[in-house]
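EI: anyone free to look at a 409-residue chain?
SC: sure, send it
EI:
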Amino acid sequence: MTNEDLINFCESKNYDLRISHNARWIDQKCTPDVLWSISDFVLNYVENVKDTFTPSDIWHSDYAKQTIAETYSKPGTDETAAENEYDKVFSQPLCLLAYAGVLKDISTNKHHLYQIENKEVLEYIATNDIFSLRFLQAYIEKVLKDSDLFGYFYEFFQKQTKEDFDRLKTAFINFYHTYTPVLGDYEPKRIFTKVINPLAHKYGKCGSKRGRMSQFKITKAEMMYNQDNFRDIYKGKPKNVTRKDWLSSHPADIRVGYFTQMLNNAKKLIRNNIITYRNSVSELTQFNSAHSDANLPSQIHHIFPKNEFPEIMHYLENLIALTPNQHYGFAHPNNNTQVIDLDAQKVLLIAKTYSVKMNLENIDEETIYSFENLLYVLHIGWSDDDVLTIDNDDYCEVLRCISSHYASL
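SC: here you go
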């Protein structure tokens, strides 16, 4: 499924809130990471248990239990203290998906009972938080346009002034008072941020932060429900100390479950891309036939090791599909997975850059990579801020930086 298919799906729906009066079309917990995670839980539940489900079914499913506490830094799903929080974390995204037409609410009473209405869209959302964000951006914009609200947002994005921000926020609150059962100001104020920020990020604009107009453009990290702040984790680390050693001596509450869930999906996405568009050929072989290998690329290798760089362990741009011989003989010399060969790392980064370029320039295949993410992976892997200033789509400069970096080691 492509981003264009996603837009066409939303275009086929009428999301006019003036007709539906649905105040739960989006809510506080409907962030890209939560929506992605819950969608993944739903697909797993339907595949392994049954095709109808309640929020409680997903909440207490084995798959959710395995990851939810670490994913969101919350107590286990069976703990009473977490009941109210989990009710929102699971029920609010399901309400959104139902209003969007991805799920169907087939309940006959006040207790929600769902089934999947459009599996293809749900699978798209469940891919990762980037795809989930793309869905939210398309969905939110369509709801606003259908409800004749988008003009206020467009005007704010054009002018970016405090006065226009306040005018937009007031119009949003008044709309809720007029067309939904919500009469107070608290709920629409809280939801407003979840509506404006995905669009602000899409258009590269300022949005909302702590109820006021943000000082800077909205970043992806700011939209997440419970994002780890790795800048704080590594604050004070001397340059001669590896990140792995720093983490071992400065334990941090890193959400391992979140990154593991993301990593598993990222590996599947790369494998599907290789099968569908690359004739099941290793990414290294595509770049340089000198490393040709008859085996299938069954190994997904971290170019920058996941134990040293946990914040990019799930980035597609840090993962590369290799054959077993390439993985254990080239990427890890002498089959030692604890050793990273820097000469090999250079070659793998060049090969990955080639994969990213192929994907982003081919209009006939699903876009899974991001040039911005490629720069971020290099930024983290090298601890180099300058690489973030490379112009969009300047692959020649990326390759020059790769060659320059490893020539100096």
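EI: The two ends are 42 Å apart (CA to CA).
SC: 👍
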